[in-house]
User: Which sequence fits this backbone?
């Protein structure tokens, strides 16, 4: 009985925070036109959110691609189908690993930074100060960071997949001796622009929006104490990871017609 | 001020890199760069069996990619498979009596269409129909043939 | 419609007073912060609001600036009913206000110069040269023109507060609010702030409202003070009048005595009983 009660409250809390998150998104969307006029601020946020994550993303992409190349080669060679390596690496990266891994890395690298930055601004009254100077902190602080995240994640995803593909090529072709012509031509036959590249891009746009929204939301509503900010940062990573994986399933089911 | 400039330039670099990656993926991993949906001309061919042939499979001539399969339908009258393929405009002098065969690359590999040139003076053009076709080899049928030929040679 | 509103404002407010609060009620949970509080703040003067910590002095400032909505009561600031304003109107009113936060609330990621320039960049389309003139002028007024290139982290507490002051006056407000401006400063910085409050008030024709519990500093700068406690105004007058107030509570507060009407001990169960009665905390 008590367990049921607890679960009921957990469910209630969950629904409440979901609702609050949506309302926050609506406030953000309303402020976007005003914030776009100050594109310079967004541009600078893209630097700290996106460009600063570039090295991490490229390194991770390279090694994920290399592992795919190695594992794929070992498995495919059992069926004498190593020519399909290019297809395997490209489809894995474009459809799943690129969007998902990039979003997870992003929330760990940049999402936490956004949360703690906004949380500390709240704790040190910078947000209240802005309101007192008649500047809407949603428009001035939250929206540029949200947009920067939502723009950066798809770009990072594309970079991740491209570098990963090169990593797979490096291992498969240069190290394991798969025929480069077969590697590329098989890939080109089986990879479709709309089904794979564009669908992957759509996934990454959704993930980017979700991760950025969660990061700025947790930061904006964090308790203005050291403990509150650190809790909010943790929640950002946990919730982003869950959101990305759940959304990934839903989007995959929608896009590739198989539930 | 100089620091702001560095930041803005790096951001520009990052964004260009992202779009370059998208361009790379769109053109290099897919067939989009070779044959757009608009370029080239469409010809059809009917086969009694297409086996595992799929849409987007390559169409080759002497091993060179010349186009790809755009649609596979069943003709309800003849119960034959009608395969439409788009061929690049670069190859607009393919004789109209060429043969289309469904071939397999590797043991478990993808199936594709191979064109072998005929001797006609006329060339394939948009909406042409390839007369001579050779269907896919179906493994079960092959084994069946092999077994029956063995059996008949053994009984001799 | 507009004229009507205007005339209703005129009947309810006195032009002499910039802030008029009457019948203010505010509670947080079960704790009553203000109970029918009345305060008038005259134009052009320095008015202090004093009281022990935890009496809601800062909350009062936030109610005046519309950051916090009270449960009941009339709050008029510069002739406008703060409780009835929508966000845009409230922001318009705040453009006439400067607010000095206790910790300065400077933006830690931009320089002193950019901090002071921030309101100008947000609210005006002034060319860079003009912004530079205004910012340097305001920094000169607080004596920190030389620190324009520094980051907030490099500033001492007193300097940070002066920068925040320069930022608060950069839009030439009519009213300026000081939230505990003397807390945590060394004697020299304290003297500087006291001087600045006086000078800015007189030279810019401001109305200054100070919330503080530092009796001596407030007395040295304010024209009149309110003493509030338990949600009500306990005493009102010039520093001299308060000095000679007969009330035991006012005397305890003004002189800083440890025991008096406000007991040294927070309400607690009997000491002996808690120690020996077996009742654990």
Assistant:
């Amino acid at each position: 009985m008590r367990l049921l009660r607890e679960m009921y409250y957990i469910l209630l809390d969950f629904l409440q925070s979901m609702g609050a998150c949506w309302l926050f998104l609506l406030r953000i969307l309303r402020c976007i036109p005003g914030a776009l006029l100050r594109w310079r601020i967004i541009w600078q946020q893209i630097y700290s959110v996106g460009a600063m994550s570039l090295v991490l993303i490229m390194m991770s992409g390279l090694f994920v691609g290399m592992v795919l190349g190695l594992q794929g080669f070992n498995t495919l060679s059992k069926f004498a189908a190593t020519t399909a390596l290019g297809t395997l690496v490209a489809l894995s990266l474009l459809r799943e690993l690129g969007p998902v891994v990039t979003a997870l890395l992003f929330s760990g690298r940049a999402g936490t930074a956004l949360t703690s930055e906004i949380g500390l601004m709240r704790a040190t009254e910078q947000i209240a100060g802005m309101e007192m100077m008649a500047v809407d902190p949603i428009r001035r602080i939250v929206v540029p960071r949200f947009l920067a995240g939502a723009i950066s994640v798809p770009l990072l995803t594309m970079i991740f997949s491209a570098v990963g593909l090169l990593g797979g090529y490096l291992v498969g072709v240069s190290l394991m001796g798969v025929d480069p012509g077969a590697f590329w031509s098989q890939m080109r036959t089986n990879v479709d622009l709309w089904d794979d590249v564009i669908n992957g891009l759509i996934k990454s746009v959704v993930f980017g929006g979700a991760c950025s929204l969660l990061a700025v939301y947790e930061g904006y509503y964090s308790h203005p104490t050291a403990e509150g900010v650190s809790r909010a940062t943790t929640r950002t990573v946990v919730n982003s990871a869950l959101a990305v994986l759940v959304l990934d399933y839903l989007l995959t089911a929608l896009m590739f017609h198989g539930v | 001020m100089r620091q702001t400039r560095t930041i803005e330039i790096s951001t520009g670099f990052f964004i260009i890199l992202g779009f370059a990656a998208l361009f790379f993926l769109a053109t290099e991993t897919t067939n989009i760069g070779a044959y757009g949906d608009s370029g080239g001309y469409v010809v059809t061919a009917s086969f009694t069996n297409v086996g595992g042939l799929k849409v987007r499979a390559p169409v080759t001539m002497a091993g060179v990619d010349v186009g790809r399969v755009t649609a596979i339908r069943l003709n309800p009258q003849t119960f034959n498979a009608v395969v439409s393929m788009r061929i690049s405009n670069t190859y607009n002098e393919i004789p109209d009596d060429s043969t289309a065969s469904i071939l397999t690359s590797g043991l478990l590999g993808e199936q594709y269409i191979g064109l072998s040139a005929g001797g006609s003076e006329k060339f394939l053009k948009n909406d042409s129909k390839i007369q001579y076709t050779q269907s896919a080899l179906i493994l079960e049928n092959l084994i069946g043939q092999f077994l029956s030929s063995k059996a008949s040679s053994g009984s001799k | 419609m507009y004229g009507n509103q205007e005339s209703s404002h005129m009947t309810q407010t006195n032009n002499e007073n910039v802030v008029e609060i009457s019948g203010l009620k505010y509670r947080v949970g079960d704790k009553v912060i203000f109970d029918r509080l009345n305060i008038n703040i005259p134009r052009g003067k320095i008015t202090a609001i004093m009281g022990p910590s935890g009496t809601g002095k800062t909350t009062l400032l936030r109610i005046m600036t519309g950051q916090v909505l009270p449960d009941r009561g009339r709050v008029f600031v510069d002739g406008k009913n703060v409780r009835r304003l929508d966000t845009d109107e409230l922001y318009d009113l705040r453009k006439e206000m400067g607010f000095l936060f206790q910790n300065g609330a400077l933006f830690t990621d931009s320089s002193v110069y950019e901090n002071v320039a921030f309101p100008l960049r947000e609210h005006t389309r002034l060319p860079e040269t003009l912004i530079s003139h205004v910012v340097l002028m305001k920094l000169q007024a607080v004596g920190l023109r030389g620190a324009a290139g520094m980051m907030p982290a490099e500033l001492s507490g007193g300097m940070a507060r002066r920068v925040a002051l320069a930022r608060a006056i950069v839009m030439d407000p009519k009213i300026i609010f000081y939230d505990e401006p003397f807390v945590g400063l060394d004697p020299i910085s304290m003297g500087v702030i006291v001087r600045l409050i006086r000078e800015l008030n007189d030279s810019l024709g401001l109305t200054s409202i100070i919330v503080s519990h530092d009796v001596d500093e407030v007395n040295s700068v304010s024209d009149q003070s309110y003493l509030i406690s338990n949600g009500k105004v306990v005493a009102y007058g010039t520093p001299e009048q308060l000095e000679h107030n007969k009330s035991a509570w006012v005397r305890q507060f003004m002189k800083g005595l440890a025991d008096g009407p406000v007991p040294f001990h927070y309400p607690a169960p009997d000491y002996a009983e808690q120690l020996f009665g077996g009742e654990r905390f």
The radius of gyration of chain A is 21 Å. The longest helix of chain A spans residues 85-123.
